Every structure is written in structure tokens, then in C-alpha cells.
Amino acid sequence: MIMLTTQISRSYRGEGNRPHYFVLYGEQGIIAIEVKRTSTVRPREMSGLKAFLKDYPMARPYLLYGGPHHLYEKGIELIPLEKAIENLPDILRR
Asked: Structural domain tally of the chain?
């Protein structure tokens, strides 16, 4: 079991393909997580995390998506959704 002293600021923008993202902050720093169901991530789909990083460059950004590959794009870690769920405690501890 992972114990975190963390505040969660959640933003959920509506229905359909609109992004779902979470900001966690606490002793481990700031973690920004965006969730997309798409199997392919285009640069414009990372615009929300990129904008967040401009304001909070010390944050650790993650994009969880429906694709099969673990990737890194311009400082953002892209993790397949299934793998991210299985490894969420490890992701939060980094």
C-alpha cells in the first residue's frame, strides 16, 4: 500500500474526447497526469500538459493513453493506460 501526503486538484472537462487530467502535489513534488483513450498521440494533444509545464516546469508530466508503447516526447512521459494502472504506485513514488 502506498501512502502519500498529497493534495489532488482534479479537472475534468466534459464529455466525449475532451481531456481528463489530474494534478497531484505534496512531498513528492508536482505530478500532472492527463488521460486520453486514443491509441496515437499527436503533438497538439499534448498542448495542455505543455502549457502546464510552462507554468510549473518542475512538475513531472505523464500522458496515459490507449497505445501500446512507452514513449518520451519533449519532456512528457507517455505510458500505455493498462501499464500505468498496473504500475501507478511506482509512478507516484518516482
From this structure: 1
